[in-house]
Specification:
Layout lengths: L5 E5 L3 H12 L3 E5 L7 H5 L3 E2 L3 H7 L2 E4 L4 H10 L6 E4 L5 H13 L3 E8 L11 E6 L1 H6 L1 H4 L4 E4 L6 H28 L5 H16 L2 H10 L9 H17 L8 H12 L9 H6 L5
Parallel strand pairs: 1-2, 1-4, 2-3, 4-5, 5-6, 7-8
Antiparallel strand pairs: 6-7
Helix pairs in contact: 4-5, 8-9, 11-12
Bound molecules: NADPH dihydro-nicotinamide-adenine-dinucleotide phosphate.
Length: about 290
């Protein structure tokens, strides 16, 4: 058990409750506040102290954890209150711009600001697989480390408060892309009444093997070397219509594939046919007008 320290949690939805529980489990002195007061009761039964107002909760502890639905909610609560002398750790999902704006607001009022992105579901909080990304005031982060370690594995990304939400959303972005591919692929095999369960292990093995290419793609991007001896943009561009035709023949909507077809066409039209597929990143960085 770690040394007991005072901490406040604002927002007791599924995630805020998991965060408060993890702090209580680690023996910390936890003050909680939620817009609908009823949600505090199970935590009070476990030893938390309920504050009647957000201002009272903020005043109760040097460290204030915020976890609400959207940034607008947290903005409303924090901009109405004075976080002077407090470290605010904002774990509500938002954009880098929102994080920077709230950081300015908090620091202008004498507080310190750390933004965070939770890469976990509530059930994972407190375990080593819960990755929490942080950025912002590094000294404030380090001083709060004992408490923040209660949530899982902490990773500090840098002084810009926008970095944690940027990485958070980039990881979600990668996840949605992967899910889109898997969902389309599974619709293809289901069009022949193949059970998804038959296909899923093959897809897992295939995608795992494909992911081994990530470090090579990253090196190519960092070095600006796009040559390839594996599979070129032109090879994929030629093969891609086969995917679309198969999809249509099988009665499966090819919509998820179309933007990638367009990007491959554009890469070839711009003279990048001999490059590796990672060349597409540079086209995304320079959207077509
Ligand atoms: P919930 O919907 O369970 O809880 C939302 C919380 O926000 C409640 O405490 C709610 O209060 C509060 N809230 C909403 N509107 C306002 C408002 N206008 N003023 C004050 N408080 C308000 O969401 P989660 O706890 O699941 O998620 C919280 C954050 O954590 C989100 O940003 C989410 O993206 C992020 N997150 C969640 C994950 C998850 O798996 N759940 C995973 C990773 C990140 P009230 O009870 O009064 O409605």
């Amino acid at each position: 058990m770690t040394e007991s320290t005072s901490v406040t949690v604002l927002g007791l939805g599924l995630m805020g409750t998991a965060l408060a529980e993890a702090l209580l489990k680690n023996g910390h002195s936890v003050t909680v506040w939620n817009r609908s007061p009823g949600k505090a009761e199970p935590l009070v039964a476990k030893g938390a102290r309920r504050a009647a107002t957000a201002a009272e909760a903020i005043a109760a502890s040097p460290l204030v954890i915020v976890c609400m639905s959207v940034y607008g909610n947290a903005d409303d609560v924090l901009t109405g209150e004075a976080p002077a002398g407090r470290t605010v750790v904002q774990l509500t999902n938002g954009t880098p711009g929102q994080a920077r704006a709230l950081a300015e607001h908090v620091t202008a009022r004498g507080g310190r600001y750390v933004d965070g992105g939770i890469m976990a579901v509530p059930q994972m909080i407190g375990g080593p697989d819960a990755l929490i990304l942080y950025s912002g005031d590094e000294a404030a982060f380090e001083e709060s480390r004992t408490l923040l370690d209660a949530f899982g594995t902490a990773r500090f990304l840098g002084a810009d408060p926008g970095l944690a939400p940027l990485f958070d959303l980039a990881l979600l972005d990668a996840m949605y892309g992967m899910l889109a591919g898997f969902f389309h692929a599974v619709a293809l095999v289901r069009s022949e009444k193949v059970r998804a369960a038959t296909f899923a292990p093959m897809a897992t093995a295939w995608l795992t093997a494909m992911m081994e290419g990530f470090p090579g793609y990253a090196r190519a991007l960092d070095d600006g070397e796009f040559g390839t001896d594996v599979s070129s943009v032109a090879t994929s561009q030629v093969a891609f219509p086969g995917l679309l035709d198969t999809s249509r023949e099988q009665g499966v909507d090819p919509a998820l594939l179309l933007p990638l077809r367009d990007l491959l066409d554009r890469a070839v039209a711009e003279g990048h046919g001999e490059d590796g597929l990672v060349r597409l990143v540079t086209l995304l960085e320079r959207p077509a007008s």
